[in-house]
Design brief:
Length: 293
């Protein structure tokens, strides 16, 4: 049986990104890709389980280049989305999902063990509460990107809307780590105050919470909040910012306390935000950048 320190799970996504003042960009996306690359740069012994059309496996090269073991669950089509930023506000975006690889199923998984299993979905089409409960019953420690439930796809227009989740407290209670962005935090908790939102999520049963913003990342751990700013010099790689932060944090957290992992994640994400696509730097580059802050 394969054993890993972290396993990411979810869809791969082919994105078309449209932003003001920039030419449309077609790129590989998904929380598994951005988070997995960040984790692979930070730590070894990482894997990713991805449901997609096997014909698109060449797109997984960035994960493999940083040492991530990749396992593909075959699907008829690879998930594809169009992401539109109508303004310079990094928090405002419109997303339509054009193709979908279908939900993940327990029987599709290969036998493996891991210290942490990360549910890195991009919409509500990948996991449901029953699937998560089965994973917990199998003994996995879980981390969740809450977009896996908040991003809900309209059955006819295929537009992704951010909506509240009826089972949110049950879902969160099963998690060791959880990541939200500003909009998701407000939708789920009803407040713009990130510190209060983090406390509310904590009260549902998850003890380490990250909330990413355009300026940085708030961490709630050990019943206290801390905020670390991003320090990027240009903003060409806004897509994947939160996924990158979460992946880097979880990998660093394997060997470091929460605040040190937060600092590492913010530094790596700052470098990533400067250019489109997943993080393309090295461990040493992040270490040098962090030491120079």
């Amino acid at each position: 049986m394969k054993r890993y320190d972290i396993v990411f799970m979810g869809h791969f996504c082919k994105d078309e990104i449209i932003a003001p003042g920039q030419k449309p960009v077609r790129t590989a996306g998904s929380a598994v890709l951005y988070g997995g690359v960040a984790a692979g740069v930070t730590h070894s012994n990482i894997a990713a389980i991805i449901k997609m059309n096997p014909d698109d496996q060449a797109l997984l090269r960035p994960l493999q280049d940083v040492g991530v073991d990749v396992y593909v669950i075959p699907a008829a089509e690879t998930t594809e989305a169009r992401v539109v930023y109508p303004s310079d506000d990094i928090e405002e975006r419109h997303v339509h999902q054009i193709h979908n690889a279908g939900p993940l199923k327990i029987e599709e998984l290969f036998p493996f063990r891991t210290k942490l299993l990360v549910l890195a979905g991009i919409s509500d089409q990948e996991f449901d509460l029953i699937f998560v409960q089965k994973l917990k019953h199998l003994g996995y420690a879980l981390a969740l990107d809450i977009q896996s439930f908040v991003r809900q796809i309209h059955p006819t227009t295929r537009k992704i809307k951010f909506r509240d989740v009826a089972e949110k407290e049950k879902i969160v209670s099963l998690m060791q780590f959880i990541k939200l962005d500003v909009l998701e935090a407000k939708i789920l908790t009803g407040t713009d105050d990130l510190a209060k939102a983090a406390q509310t999520v904590e009260s549902w049963g998850c003890k380490e919470i990250l909330i990413t913003t355009s300026n940085g990342v708030l961490l709630r751990a050990n019943q206290t909040n801390s905020f670390t700013r991003f320090t990027h010099k240009r903003n060409l790689g806004r897509t994947g910012r939160g996924d990158t932060t979460f992946g880097a944090y979880l990998a660093r957290r394997l060997t470091h306390p929460p605040r040190e992992a937060q600092a590492w994640a913010a530094a790596l994400a700052s470098l990533k935000i400067q250019d489109p696509g997943p993080f393309s730097g090295s461990y040493d580059a992040v270490k040098k950048y962090l030491n120079n802050l």
